[in-house]
Write a structure and sequence with these properties.
The complex is a heterodimer of chains A (about 400) and B (about 230). With about 400 residues, chain A is α+β, with helices and mostly antiparallel strands. Chain A is about 55% helix and about 20% strand. Chain A is built from 13 helices and 14 strands. In chain A, the strands form 3 sheets. In chain A, strands 3-4-11-6-8-7 form a 6-stranded mixed beta barrel, surrounded by 4 helices. Chain A has a two-stranded antiparallel ribbon with strand order 2-12. In chain A, strands 9-10 form a two-stranded antiparallel sheet. In chain A, a hairpin with a 2-residue loop joins strand 3 and strand 4. In chain A, helix 1 (about 5-15) crosses helix 11, helix 2 (about 20-55) runs antiparallel to helix 9 (about 265-305) and helix 2 packs antiparallel against helix 12 (about 365-395). Chain B has helices at about 45-55, 75-85, 105-115, 120-130, 145-160, 175-190, 205-210, 225-230, and strands at about 5-15, 20-30, 35-40, 60-65, 70, 90, 165-170, 195-200, 210-215, 220-225. In chain B, strands 6-7-8-3-9-10 form a 6-stranded mixed β-sheet, sandwiched between helices. Classes of the chains: A alpha+beta (about 400), B alpha/beta (about 230).
Chain lengths: ~400, ~230
Amino acid sequence: MSLGEAVRSALWSLRSNKLRSFLSMLGIIIGVAAVVGIVSIGLGAQSQVLDMVSALGSNLIMITPAPTLGRSGRMSSDAVDVFTMEMAQHLQEMAPSLTLVVPQVQSSGLLLYAGANLRATLVGTTPQYTQVTNYEVAAGRFLHALDLEQRTPVLVLGSRLAERLFGEVDPVGQVVRLVVGDRRYDFVVVGVMAPKGQVALGNYDNQVYLPITFVLERLLRTNRVGTLMAQALSAEAAPQAVREAEFFLYSRLGTTDEFSITSQDEMLETIGDVAFTLQLMLGAIGGISLVVGGIGVMNIMLVSVSERTREIGTRKALGAKRRDLLLQFLVESLALTTSGGALGLGAGAAVAQAVSKYGGWPASIQASALAVAFGFSALVGLVAGVYPALRAARLDPVTALSFE
Amino acid sequence: MSTVIEARKLTKIYPMGEEEVHALRGVSFSVRRNEYIAIMGPSGSGKSTLLHILGCLDRPTSGDLTIEGTNVLQATDNRLAEIRNRRIGFVFQNFNLMARATALENVELPLIYGGVRRKERRERALAALERVGLADRLHHRPTELSGGQRQRVAIARALVTEPAFILADEPTGSLDSKTSVQIMELFAQLHQEGNTLLVITHNQSVAQEAQRIIELLDGRITSDSGQQGVGA
C-alpha cells in the first residue's frame, strides 16, 4: 500500500468516526493551543517591555547612587548624596567612549494655574536631556544652556501634565506657580514635550523639566545630583564606556560601593533572560498537556485496534502485509494528532489575538512557534501510534479472523 | 489440466496446555484447474484448520503444500501475504466487509494491497461487481445491502484479483435458504466461467452442488469422490 493510499484511508477512517476523533484530538488541540497562545502572548509582552527599555534612549548608560554598607559605627550612607554637577562634567571629559553625560535630580512639587493645582515630579536637568532620552519637544522649546547659567525660572511640561493643567489653553508663555515645601516661585512655561508614554522607569509625560541649577541651588539647596545618564558613542562602545565611567568614579570616590552602572544592553539582556525563562516554563506546561493528549491518542488507538481485530484479520487475508497495517495505524494516529495540531494552532492564534485585542496586551504570533508546536503534535502522534500499530501488524490472521 | 493445489501429508498439531491436539493427521489431495470441490465434515473434523492452511493464513506442522507450483512452507510471511493477495480469493461466512466502505471500495481493497493503480483498480472492481450482478449497488454501504447482496460483494472482492482458486468458508451460513440458492447458483456460474472453487461446509445441499466432495473426520480424509481422478 502506498503512503498516499494510507493517508486517504486514515482520513476516511477519522471522518467516519467524527465525535470520537474529535474527543481524542481534544488533548492535542488544547496542548497546541496553549503552547501557541502562551508563546505568542509571551513574545508580545517581551517585545513590549523591550520597546519600553529601548524608549529610554539609545546606547544609554545609567549611573545611579547605591547605598553603602554601614559598618563599625558608620551609618549606611544615603544613596542620593554621591554625584555632583562638576563630576558629571569631568566624567564627560575623561571618558572618551561617552558622548554625553546628563545629570538629573528629582523632587516633587505642586503646580498652580488658574485656580487648579496638580502634584508633579520635578526633574532638574540639562539641555542634553532630550538627546540621551530621544525625547522630542511638541511646542515651544526645551531648556537652554542660558537657562542653566542664569537660573532662569522656566519649565517644560510633559504632555499629559500640560493637558491636565491647561486643557484647551496653549501653555507656552503662561506663568505657573510652583510650590515646593513652603517656598513659592513663578515659572514661565517655555515648552511642552511630545508624548512618550510609559518607559521602563516611569512616565515621562507626567514630569516637569526645570534647569538643574535652579533646582539644586534654589529648591533643594544642595550640590548633589541624583542619577547620571550617559550616552555611549555606539552600542559596541557601551562596555568600554561602562569601564571608563567605573574607573573615573572609583578614582573620585575611592570605592565602587557607592554607585552602580547599568548599560541599556544589560537591561535588555536581563529582561530577555527573564522572559525566556518564563516562556520556557509556560511552554513546558503546554508541553505537558501535549503529552497527556498523546496518552489519550494512544489509548484510543489501542481501543481502535482491538475493536477492529476482525477487520485487521480480513485485511491480512486479502493480502495486507505487516508494514501495510503498521503504516495504516501509524498514519491514522498521525492524522489524528496533526489535525488536532492544526485546530490547536488556529485556536491558539485566536486566543492570542483576542487577548491582545481585549486585554491591551500585544501578541506576536511567530511562524517558528507555530512550526514547533505543530511538529510536536506530529511527534506525539508518531510516538503514541507506534505501539498500537505494532500490535495490529503482529496480529495472527487466524486469531484475528475468528475474533468475535 | 494443470494442478492448482498440491497437498501432501499435511499435519497440524496445536499445543493445548500439557496435551497436543492433532487437528490434521496427514491430509493429501490435489486440486486441478476449474474443479469445484466441497470439503465437508462435522465440527472438530479439522476443516477449519485445513481452510487456514489452504488459505495460507497458517502453516502446517509437517507436510507439503504447493500452490500453482510455489512451495508455501518455505515462504516468508510477506510472501504468504502476496500469495493470499494474488492467488486466493476468500469468501467468509460473515462476509467480513469493511462496514464504512462502499461496495466498490470493498472490492478495490485487495487491489490496493496488490499495488494496482487507481484507474485500473476502479475498472476491475466495476467489472467484478457486474459479474456478480451488483452493477446498480456500487456506492451502497454493507448496511444498505441485503445479506445476499453483501455476500455477492464479498464474492466480487474474491474474484477481482483473478485468483488461482476461490476459498469459501460456509458461504451460505448466514443466509436464508432462498438467498443461499441464489449464491450457490452464482458459484455454479463462476465454475462454468472456468474458476476453481473450494467450498468448506457442513451443509449437505451446498456440498451437493460441487463436482467433487472431500469428507474429513478427525483430521483425516474419509472419502474423496474425485480420488480416482487424482492418481491417474
